[in-house]
Amino acid sequence: MIFSENLYWGRHAREHKKYILDNLRKRHFQPGAYVIIAAKAPNLYEIYNQAMFLNPKMNTENVEILGIGYGYKDAVECVTTMLMQRKDVIC
Predict the structure, then answer these.
(1) Amino acid 68: pLDDT
(2) Which residue has the higher pLDDT, 64 or 90?
(3) Which of 11, 59, 12 lies closest to 37, judged by CA?
(4) What is the pLDDT of residue 89?
């Protein structure tokens, strides 16, 4: 996993930054953590439960994580923030 320099945090995830990052780096199971990555066109982002990144059959070494939410609702709010801050998206 590669963490973006401009990593976005959900409101709840922000409260547990150190704990979440430590567990993601060590590849420990972390219930409730969701990662946001870039999607293939025409979509912009995809939200995955962190447990999917523990699957040895998935190649996640070079996947850039753009945002982290703690709980699905927090991840959706994080994506909303990411979309609102994009300059190339017309609202």
Answers:
(1) 96
(2) 64
(3) 59
(4) 58
CA dist 82 and 62 (Å) reads 21
Could you tell me how many helices (H) and strands (E) the chain has, helices first?
A: 3, 4
H or E stretch at 5: strand 2-9
What pLDDT, on a 0 to 100 scale, did the predictor assign at position 90?
A: 57
The answer to whether residues 83 and 8 touch, using CB atoms and an 8 Å cutoff, is no
Phi then psi dihedrals of residue 20, to 5 deg: -65, -50
- Torsion sign (Cα): 85, 37, 45, 53: negative
**44, 62, 43, 23: which is closest to 34 by C-alpha?**
23
Determine contact, residues 11/73, Cβ cutoff 8 Å.
no
